[in-house]
Amino acid sequence: MISREKHDRMANAIRFLSMDAVEKANSGHPGLPMGAADVATVLFSRFMNFDPKNPLWPDRDRFVLSAGHGSMLLYSLLYLTGYEDITIEDIKQFRQLGSKTAGHPEYGHISGIETTTGPLGQGVSNAVGMAIAERKLSEEFGSDLQNHHTYALVGDGCLMEGISQEAIALAGHLKLNKLIVFWDNNSITIDGAVSLSDSTDQIARFKSVNWNTISVDGHDPDAIAAAIEAAHLSDKPTLIACKTVIGFGAPNKQGTHKVHGSPLGAEEIAAARKSLNWDAEAFSVPADVLDAWRLAGLRSTKVRMEWEDRLGATANETRAEFVRRFAGDLPGDFDSTIDAFKKKVAANNPTVATRKASEDVLEIINGLLPETLGGSADLTPSNNTKTTQMQAITPADFSGRYLHYGIREHAMAAAMNGIALHGGLIPYAGGFLIFSDYCRPSVRLAALMGIRVIHVWTHDSIGVGEDGPTHQPVEHLAALRAIPNLLVFRPADETETAECWQLALKEKHRPSGLALTRQNLAPARKEYEEKNLCAYGAYELVSSSDAQVTIFASGSEVEIALKANEMLQQRGIASRVVSVPCVELFMGQPDDYRAAIIGTSPVKIAVEAAVREGWDAIIGSDGIFIGMKSFGASGPAKELYKHFGITAEAVVESAEKRLS
Amino acid sequence: MISREKHDRMANAIRFLSMDAVEKANSGHPGLPMGAADVATVLFSRFMNFDPKNPLWPDRDRFVLSAGHGSMLLYSLLYLTGYEDITIEDIKQFRQLGSKTAGHPEYGHISGIETTTGPLGQGVSNAVGMAIAERKLSEEFGSDLQNHHTYALVGDGCLMEGISQEAIALAGHLKLNKLIVFWDNNSITIDGAVSLSDSTDQIARFKSVNWNTISVDGHDPDAIAAAIEAAHLSDKPTLIACKTVIGFGAPNKQGTHKVHGSPLGAEEIAAARKSLNWDAEAFSVPADVLDAWRLAGLRSTKVRMEWEDRLGATANETRAEFVRRFAGDLPGDFDSTIDAFKKKVAANNPTVATRKASEDVLEIINGLLPETLGGSADLTPSNNTKTTQMQAITPADFSGRYLHYGIREHAMAAAMNGIALHGGLIPYAGGFLIFSDYCRPSVRLAALMGIRVIHVWTHDSIGVGEDGPTHQPVEHLAALRAIPNLLVFRPADETETAECWQLALKEKHRPSGLALTRQNLAPARKEYEEKNLCAYGAYELVSSSDAQVTIFASGSEVEIALKANEMLQQRGIASRVVSVPCVELFMGQPDDYRAAIIGTSPVKIAVEAAVREGWDAIIGSDGIFIGMKSFGASGPAKELYKHFGITAEAVVESAEKRLS
């Protein structure tokens, strides 16, 4: 049992490390670490199951600092509890170029950082995903191997953001009772008092979405501990509302927005040292306090070793599967299975929408990969994401593999990030491409973290038809391609769809999105080819050694390119066609491959039912672009293509005009 | 008083027009119009103050169909009540190319469409903005000129979306008691029952954010009427939860997701005709029913004429101001005021961050334009959006001109759309550029609608510094430039900032965003120039008739371009510098201007602390780009610029290398 005095000193260690680091960096957020230090100390010294020496232990409790600006709270905890990849020197380098202790916690920098946070509302939504993963894996592998809690710390900012409200509603619906959220209720935001902009009764709001709620004094360790104990017994997720004082311990500034995001200044820090009775130097933690923290870090060693024993005693096959799943490796026969599917496709050459092609591929994938967790933001019949293996997960039964995320694109994307970060599962889910805008912040974070999350974005152009411009993506391909480290696939037929899925699944450290059509497409590739040609990003579909014209196209417009090519041949104009299923992969090819594919034909044309932005890199700023210059319109898809001039005839006409 | 029988027939007219139009289009959503017909009939026949002959009457009640897929509900209402710009022929052309009756209601197509809806959650958030505008203008011009209600109809989809939850919390906080939201509580979504994905107690949730709530049978006209009457007396916004049957009247399909988004089929429509005792042909409305509806359309004529009288009796100056404000015209001395400011700036040539420059410009603008309504998503001290004229709006006092929107970027953007759509005010508000991702769907809708909404996006690059990659936009300029009809300004100094603000405010039919720096910038333009040079999108800052090198740059990188230019001159290399404050405006210039600005120097270099995408159109695919190829990092801004190689030295080196 930790005495109150010891607790206070342990919490104060967090406070001073945070004050000192922010002061040295002359930048950062001391308010949250100081205010939430008591909550964090209780959690990490009495409850969290974690092992700093084995930070990736699959059954560890997860802790997500959703209010990522309070990063010094997390860095302090990781250093104090003895994570080996963070030292006091790292803390001194807070917010400096190249340091592990970035302004906001970044996944991959230190092993105890479970997710990158900072953009508000994301972390708590990741935590919902982690809790989903835990429950699902516990159902699958048993509570001997998966039985942990997920904790998140949120501020008012997180709770005001719509994404968190989506995620919280989903968690309440699914009764994720091992999810515990601490609300750092300090009544302060950057602009001033929370009351400037909000009057929400958070307790009532959480109750309305099926949460258990507990309110405590966030500076009373025993009350916090009692709340956590009570939360552990709940059959619902729990909100622990912790009334705190932001910047607790800074005698003149605490409780105001002045401590939120600025260094306290030497004078105030000196005053805090006095008021908290702390005489250690900056960055120095008294031995008794460090010892107490290191002991806290050793607390779960036994629990972890017992878990190792249970894993060791697990049947070989199950154990191997569990280990494989957490390593993120695909089964050995993955490639050959996709290959066999490609052969079958080449034998039939179906004319299908790529969303349907994707369903066919997923049918194979989901049969082979028990780790896929599918879903849709209430567009299941349109996204074609639910294959025969996929039964719906319900609050009472997590044996299914399909999540009805509801009309919550943003929380879905963030939850998928959490599922991927948790390990053991590969999340994919569907939405309309237009609604990628609703979840962009989470897609970006997946790219920044480098995690395997797969978005199925159907209805990817004016091919949507009658629903009109509100539902027709025009700028989305360009906007998504602009995100570093994200792969945007736009396959042209069933074969390319299979190849793109294969690539997306094999990318352990990059998220992907597949842009798929609503409308049927004729096959672009009719012959079986062992190589995954989409892996090149762009490749020749039709060659010509002396081409006057090269037509580049992606997805649904490859059909148009092929037709235009035929028409050009008929008119005696030599031309070639390049399919471009993934611009990012193409840009990553060696210079000579890129040069060969771009080629030297005097006329270069790109066809894509979207804006031109980005295509100049391939066709040159003098290249011809056949695509969209404006928003779309409501009408039958075929008429729209004509109306906007995205036709084989337009391609041919522009080529002839340029050549004449 | 409308008898129950008459009511039923009026509601059934909506139902059959909707069924018939969807059937003819073979596409669309009959479920909502049929289920919500009773609610809409009560509202439009008994309560709404509107005048189909004067559809833009400034004090009309606003009606927003947030569940935009139910567009036939709105089209039916507009046709039946006698709007002159919609005929039965238009209804027959539902969802056809070029028709006014698009798949989703589109602002500008028919005068009674108050906003474009379809992407869920947007409409209700627009409605919050409209209610803010009404309250603000009522405070300013008195209730004689502004005193109307704002009604919105939402479905479960709208309520699950995070944006609506942000907007609802804001509305409750501000006590927008003239906002009344009908929830079409039909328990069905596309995937099936709402219970598949949600367990929210909506009544409790609305109560938790300070709303008045009423539950009614959505097919009982008197109960609906009583609820609206009660709502009118509330001092809070009101949710009227209307329990409805989706597809009401389709005997075999109603109450299921089968009626949501597909034609009913001839057989089911015939059955509905029988069950609802409706013997009129398709698209034919019996004379008694049409008469009743047209009478409903005339209901508010007297109210409108009384309003006209009051406007006529208003003091000349106030009346002229009111009329000017609703026409969206700027005061006559706007240009000269900006011009005078530019002179002052040229006399001082301050070194300032453009976010601070923006504050200086806003100080002038807000002094001149009483119609600006400022705000920020809780980043007021960082966005510099609050000038001396701006006092905060509070729930009790709307005399201020500044809204603390809270940490709700998405609802803020959508509310700004609603404020602009309402008329009489010009909304602007601040956020970090990185968080433009959080509000992209609303920014897109502003662009699609062509409305004057101005986003102040500060902290626009790695210049953010220590906060790191989660807060450093890299792809956002490219992603925003990809949106058609949106102007993205990135001024380089205080003079350009003034010019960009001038342009943004003069664009009555386009939204704008200003990307502004956190860090100080040396002035790029030192001489006063009467012309607004930013209006060209790009222009020469430094000329050279025989330039070997042209350097293009925007915003903070203009400083780097100018320094590189000097270094090149010193090395005897002739070079010129082009400032590119607005790519979209530049692309819209005549070909000869564009060609002249791009020029013919053998080496073209673009410098922008962002991804390359889009720049090839100016520098060519063989041009040199000095910018970002990855996400940013945490560290002091100056070090980051060096680390990522965005320096004058790098520009010079690359130029020399290319020339050698």
TrEMBL record, chains A, B:
Record-level GO BP terms: pentose-phosphate shunt
Binding site for thiamine diphosphate: H69, G118, P119, L120, G157, N186, H260, F435
EC number: 2.2.1.1
Residues at the catalytic site: E409 (proton donor)
Pfam families, A to Z: Transket_pyr, Transketolase_C_1, Transketolase_N
Keywords: Calcium, Magnesium, Metal-binding, Thiamine pyrophosphate, Transferase
Family, as annotated: Belongs to the transketolase family.
Protein name, UniProt field: Transketolase
